[in-house]
Amino acid sequence: MLVATAVSAEREAVAAASSGTAHEVRLPGATLHRADGHDLLAAGVGPALAAASVSAALTAAALEGAPYRLVVCAGIAGGFQPGAPVGSLVVADDIVAADLGAEAPEGFLPVTELGFGTVSHRPPDSLVREVAAATGGRVGTVLTVSTVTGSAARAAELRARHPGALAEAMEGFGVAEAAGAHGVPVLEIRAVSNPVGPRDRSAWRIGDALAALTGAFGKLGPLLESWNPHERTD
Ligand SMILES: O=C(O)c1cccc(C(=O)CC[C@H]2O[C@@H](n3cnc4c(=O)[nH]cnc43)[C@H](O)[C@@H]2O)c1
User: Fold this and answer.
1) Among the listed residues 81, 73, 92, 101, the one whose alpha carbon sits nearest the alpha carbon of residue 178
2) Which residue has a Cα nearest atom 1 of ligand 1?
3) Of 194, 192, 195, which is closest to residue 136 (Cα–Cα)?
4) pTM assigned to the model
5) 145 Cβ below 6 A of ligand 1
6) 96: β partners
7) CATH value of 2-221 in 3.40.50.1580, 3.10.580.10, 3.10.129.10, 3.40.50.880
8) Among 7, 86, 162, which residue has the most ligand 1 atoms within 8 Å of its CB, making it the best to mutate?
9) What is the ipTM of this complex?
């Protein structure tokens, strides 16, 4: 399994859930922290760098003859209120690129309406349900944005376009695109550090969110390690 976070503080929060000592594996384009049979990667902020880093890790694993069974995108996120309060955990049932497209006089057009690509990746249903049950996480759409929302108007616009959205972050769709290109299932787990809305960096509760991430992964170890994509029922 590969767990991809944006920054090293998030990677360390995930690592704190297991007792094993990690060693570094340096690859072209990515440095893995390997412990207890899984790899952790601080893949960078934003969908492009996250996709490039995860793609490097997936390619290296495939060339070694040991492909990953699962890629998990994990980290902190903004939560849409009141569905995802600060400190809560969100498990994505849909990983959606919210700003990939074009503006038109009639509104935003997703890239799919321009005839290109995709804007959504759906993690395996059964795994989403099991992870949510084990962690107490809320299940919903997690948006991937390249610009952190900073106004009530933008938050309302995103909610209108994505009524099922519980959280926004900046890497999920990039990680999912990389995993999808390798045919590997993907999951996104986010701990809410701040409300989505008017920018107020002083209101971010990063420590609480990182602690929630550690708590979640503490409950997930055996479930994720033993999950077999070939036994999926969905
Ligand atoms: O300053 C720190 O100590 C620190 C520790 C851990 C993480 C950070 C980050 O700034 C991570 C950036 C990361 O967080 C996601 N994020 C969090 N809130 C939002 C949001 O409201 N909208 C979009 N993204 C959000 C995002 O995935 C960033 O990559 C700092």
Assistant:
1) 73
2) 206
3) 192
4) 0.96
5) yes
6) 120, 143
7) 3.40.50.1580
8) 7
9) 0.93
